[in-house]
Amino acid sequence: MCGSGTLLVEAAMMAADIAPGLLRKQFGFHHWKQFEPQIWEAIISDAQSRRLEGLKTLPLVSGSDNSEQAVGIARSNIKDAGLPSTIKVSLQDATKELAPHSTVAGLIVTNPPYGKRIGQVQLLRTLYHRFGAQLKINFNGWTAVIITTEQELAQSMGMRAFRKNTLFNGALISVLYQYKINSHINQSRQTGDISNQQMLENDSETSESVAIEVQEIDGAKAAEHAAMFSNRLKKNYRHLKKWARKNKVSCYRVYDADIPQYAVAIDKYDDWIHVQEYQAPKTVNKNRAFQRINDVIDVVADILETSQEKIALKVRMKQEGSKQYQKQDKKDYKIIVQEGGYDFIINMYDYIDTGLFLDHRNMRQLIKTLSHDRSFLNLFAYTGSVTVYAAAGGARTTTTVDMSNTYLNWAQENLYINGLSNDNHQFIREDCLKWIEKAIHDKQKYQLIFIDPPTFSNSKKMETSLDINRDHVALLSGCLALLADDGKIIFSTNARGFKLDGSLAENCFIKEITASTTTEDFRRKPLHRSWCLAKEESALEMPSA
Q1: In the chain, what's the furthest Cα-to-Cα distance?
Q2: How many CA atoms lie within 13 A of 412 on its CB side?
Q3: Burial letters for 367-387: b for 16+ Cβ neighbours within 10 Å, e otherwise?
Q4: How many whole angstroms separate alpha carbon 293 and alpha carbon 277?
Q5: Which string of DSSP letters, residue by residue, matches 66-124?
Q6: How far apart are the C-alpha atoms of 450 and 366, rounded to whole Å?
Q7: Residue 176: how many CA atoms within 13 Å on its side-chain side?
Q8: Of all helices (H) and strands (E), which one includes residue 219?
């Protein structure tokens, strides 16, 4: 992972006794009155001689990177440093078939990528883990040096550093970890052929590697689970791929914790893969959980026919309040995907969710069918995907309410890229609970209302917290006050164990429509339940599929 080759050039210059700045032609002190050219020339001549002698005994210096661009830049920098024949740079993935260019043990130094990015931390742990495995397999007897800001990533190497030095990498506080690679220490330890002193001198273990030894006892079962996961993913994809092609669906869920040991949700967005790892209980061994997510990463790209670079990995933890909607990263990497003939902006990295709830695919189509020539209200609107369908379905007006400027702007962009922007579409930044009170006071009426509130929220932007189990009666009663006599409310929730309060039936007619709004890829494990509420019983009628 040599990047632009800085460490390679500096290492070669140090080893060959090459003076810094030797290739430089001009220095400011050349213009000093006291400058004596003859003395300077003698110094330069001596430095040149030392360089020539040093190059004769220079040990092999080589580097690699998996980026063609980085390799090209490194080679250019090496040439500019006057060392093109002494440093070799190759295109190489550091996690696969990594082998030394010399039979003599030496020093390997790397400054791998690092950083706290949601969705990428686990991928980086996997990178370090696989790199460490390559070192232990192929670099026995070598010394390795890793520079990183994250202790968690260093631990993923599976070795114990015999020395650590704190340093600054730019403005970042980093640690330089030094390792002595002894591939045979585990075997020697098991047979009792290694002394305590040898273990101290060759200590290349960490608590992680000890845990791995324990796991190996149960390796057959772990391999069986990994095979089960791979087979299930293949089976799911084989079925859903045909269904998706037939129904012109390019974004869908392929896997959702089907195998308990592999608690991940895997969604396909065209040729991108969105993997969400459900946070493991504290009772689950961290190293075992880590190995399982490695198993997922190993096979998901091949089975789902994409590249590793197009996998976004996130850990889905239990969130409180509005944390699930807060920005988690700053990559701002957006793609545009299609659904139902419409374009939607997706952000693969920056938030827990991508901007398009896949389980609401049928729901959006239903709203499109119901919205023709009607006034439409979208509460807790998120990125406005439902508003896009309503507008496309010919809604006379749409009103989109959310308390996040980010999501309202996102919603407006979604309408814009579909050619649906006009004065009939209103976007309001407001706490929905507070806005409903104002709208009732102003005697506003809507013929179609869609409401998909969060299960719980205590955002600072809200005057009071929202608990959908506790507050849905008041919330839906407010919506009924805004509903036209011939209108209908479509209510959806992802709250587990949710029960619609029976008292609502005293003021309206209610029909559960979950079966019709659940899509094929969520049929086995539905994420939401949904109902239609209306003031007139005839309004409960749903269009045929």
Answers
A1: 104
A2: 15
A3: bbebbeebbbbbbbbbbbbbb
A4: 8
A5: S-HHHHHHHHHHHHHTT-TTTEEEEE--TTSS---S-SS--EEEE-------TTTHHHH
A6: 11
A7: 11
A8: helix 219-246
Residue 266's closest CA among 223, 222, 236?
Answer: 236
Joined tokens for residue 199 = 């273990």
Count CB atoms within 10 A of the CB of residue 403.
Answer: 22
Distance separating alpha carbons of residues 12 and 91, to the nearest angstrom:
20
- 289 band by pLDDT with thresholds 50, 70 and 90: confident
Tokens 């957006």 — which residue?
Answer: 334
Q: What is the phi/psi pair of residue 301, to 5°?
A: -65, -45
Task: Note the pLDDT of residue 291.
Answer: 76
User: What is the rounded distance in angstroms from the CA atom of residue 498 to the CA atom of residue 527?
Assistant: 12
pLDDT in tens, 429-462: 999 999 999 999 999 999 999 999 999 988 777 7
pTM of this prediction?
A: 0.72
CA dist., res. 310 & res. 300, Å (int): 11
The residue with tokens 């079962």 is: 221
∠ CA 439-440-446, nearest 5°, is: 70
One-letter amino acid identity for 545?
A
Place of tokens 């400054």: 111
Query: In 10 A of CB 23, how many CB atoms?
Result: 10
- pLDDT tens digit sequence for 362-400: 999 999 999 999 999 999 999 999 999 999 999 999 999
Decide if 124 contacts 113 (C-beta within 8 A). Answer: yes
The pLDDT of residue 351: 87
Closest CA to 295 of 319, 274, 334, 264: 264
Residues 251 and 267: beta-carbon distance below 8 Å: yes
**d(Cα 482, Cα 461) in Å, to the nearest integer?**
23
pLDDT of residue 121: 65
- Kindly indicate the confidence band of residue 119, based on its pLDDT and cuts at 50, 70 and 90: very low
83 close to 9: Cβ distance less than 8 angstroms: yes
Local structure of 318: helix, strand or coil: coil
How far are the Cα atoms of 10, 48, 77, 79, 299 from residue 20, in angstroms, in the given order?
A: 9, 11, 15, 16, 47
Q: How confident is the model at residue 324 (pLDDT cuts 50, 70, 90)?
A: very low
Written as one string, the DSSP assignment of 477-497 is HHHHHHEEEEEEEEEEE--TT
467 forms beta bridges with: 456
| Residue 69 neighbours by CB under 8 Å, 6+ apart | none
Q: Which two tokens stand for residue 322?
A: 């509005």
For residue 11, pLDDT over 70 is answered with: yes
Q: Report the distance separating Cα 187 and Cα 364, nearest Å.
A: 59
Neighbours of 155 (CB within 10 A): 23
- pLDDT per position as a tens digit, 162-191: 999 999 877 888 999 999 998 665 334 333
Structural domains in the chain, sorted by start: 6-217 (3.40.50.150), 220-318 (3.30.750.80), 339-540 (3.40.50.150)
29 within 8 A of 36, measured Cβ to Cβ: no
